[in-house]
Amino acid sequence: MKRIDWSSLDAAGKTAALARPAQRTAGDVTEVVRTILDDVRQRGGAAVTDWCLKLDKAPPRRIAITPETVAEARNALPPGDVRALRMAADNVRVFHQATRPEDTPFIETTPGVRSKLAWRPIASAGLYIPGGTAPLFSSLLMLAIPAGVAGVGQRVAVTPPNKEGGIHPAMILAAAEAELDAIWLMGGAQAIAALTFGVELEDGVIPACDKLFGPGNAYVAEAKKQASALPGGPAVDMPAGPSELMVIVDRDAAPEIAAADLLSQAEHDADAQVLLVSTSRATIDYILSEVEVQVATLPREAIARASLNEARAILVRDLDAAAEVANLYGPEHLAIQIDDPEPLVDSIKAAGAVFVGRFAAETLGDYAAGPSHVLPTDGGARTLGGVTTASFMTTMSVQLVTEAGARQLAPIAARLARMEGLEAHARAADLRAEG
User: Fold this and answer.
1) Has 332 been annotated as catalytic?
2) Distance CA 248, CA 234 (A)
3) How far apart, in whole angstroms, are the C-alpha atoms of residue 147 and residue 178?
4) Cα 65 from Cα 126, distance rounded (Å)
5) Residue partners of 15: CB distance under 8 A and separation at least 6
6) What DSSP line would sit under 315-377, residue for residue?
7) At what angle do helices 67-75 and 169-177 cross, to 10 degrees?
8) Which of 208, 213, 199, 215 is nearest to 150 (CA)?
9) Most distant pair of Cα atoms in the chain: their distance
10) 357-395: pLDDT as tens digits
11) Catalytic annotation on 310?
12) In this structure, what are the phi and psi dihedrals at residue 99, rounded to the nearest 5 degrees?
């Protein structure tokens, strides 16, 4: 874990200190993704199958969510696991139902001229659920449930197969809790390509989706980026690549808790990045010692250690400087473990999710608190928020105008149109003013 004294850095040094891992944007990632997208655009389902066989080591497969498959999955898990998954699903649903946007009331800006914002669900959403080294069924809950609450008509979920070419039973139960009718086993850029162009496969048809959602590795993030740049390509939720966590601590922090939180993200992926920020050099020393003790006991030690190679321990003069670091970096997750955290929260302007106080473990948010854990990475939090029900909806303005309202407003609109040299616009307004 690299140590940095923030007060000793100039502007360029601060930018370098907060750089994301280089492999996220490596040139070969860009070229490989472009090759896959071009191939799928030209050859359709055959290309998807070829890339799945090459990269996933298994052909694409549709898993129908039927009473039989759900019962089999439930029997494969301990009852406690099933209950925990259901409780998490319930919390996610409750939160997103409570925060679902509603149409605004009509607002009268001119007598006889009333407008409102109306919310509508998008028609189709492609949901990418990371798999690979771990079956992230929690991400399925965090995407498919908000999409369902929003009223999305067609939800298409894809996830990489496991090493045996199959699927973890918890993924099937999560799909059932989200009321999906199927989940497709395919991963990587080829899955994003399938959702982008729509393909016909041996097990059925994947439609082209209007918007793509979900986190993933560097290839998935790049595929979403390239897909959204295509003419007529899908919208995407946000840059949601490898995981990030920043932990801000003071001298009163519990080293074992801070270390555990840092490792909880480091074990995700070798490309994940964790940062420790503290006003106390001694506290940094204690926490880094504890990190070394805990990482040696992890089943995913090798992955965590690879991630720690890109980690940072940043010493700051005060909490104002800590807020500066957080706002410049724009972390996906921000944990604030200081004596009086709420004033610092008010200074945070860029973070995907903020976990306030010792007991607000990022892991609780990952699984069961309610808000979606699909959050912007790579500094996206400076301009974007995480997935909400609103992410699966659009707004349109609805305008109602009476004859009296048109007579009052049309001359103003006509004058402004002529100022811009748009005579046809002006005449359309004039006709309303004439009644």
Assistant:
1) yes
2) 37
3) 9
4) 17
5) 328
6) E-SSHHHHHHHHHHH--SEEEEESSS-HHHHHH----SEEEESTT--HHHHHHTSSS------
7) 130
8) 213
9) 81
10) 999 999 999 999 999 999 998 899 999 999 999 999 999
11) no
12) -110, 10
Q: What is the DSSP secondary-structure string of 156-190?
A: EEEE---TTSS--HHHHHHHHHTT-SEEEE--HHH
In total, the chain counts a number of residues equal to 435
Q: What is the pLDDT of residues 121-151, one digit of tens each?
A: 999 999 999 886 677 899 999 999 999 999 9
Model pTM score? 0.90
> Could you identify the residue written with the tokens 């991400």?
139
Distant-in-sequence, close-in-space partners of 410: CB < 8 Å, separation ≥ 6: 429, 430, 432, 433
Catalytic residue among 332, 362, 425, 434: 332
Secondary structure (3-state) at 10: coil
**Which one of 333, 362, 403, 425 is the catalytic residue?**
333
Convert 250-280 to b/e letters by CB count within 10 Å (16 or more is b).
beebebebbbbbbbbbbbbbbbbbbbbbbbb
Is the distance from CB of 372 to CB of 387 less than 8 angstroms?
A: yes
Q: What percent of the chain has pLDDT above 70?
A: 98
Tokens representing residue 326 in the block: 């957080």
Task: Report helix angle 255-266 to 301-308, nearest 10.
Answer: 100
* Distance (Å) of CA 144 to CA 28, 73, 227: 32, 19, 21
- 8 A C-beta contact, residue 350 and residue 261: no
Angle between helix 301-308 and 281-295 (nearest 10): 150
CA 136 to CA 176: how far, in whole Å?
15
* Residue 114, token pair as written in the block: 């009333």
CA distance 266 to 302: 10
Tokens 């059925």 belong to 204
Burial environment of residue 112 by CB neighbours within 10 A (0 to 12, 13 to 18, 19 or more): middle
Nearest to 138 by CA among 109, 167, 173, 112: 173
| 316/327 Cα distance (integer angstroms) | 14
pLDDT in tens, 283-292: 999 999 999 9
How far is 176 from 91, CA to CA, in rounded Å?
15
* Amino acid at the residue 293: V
- What are the structure tokens assigned to 405, written together? 């309202």
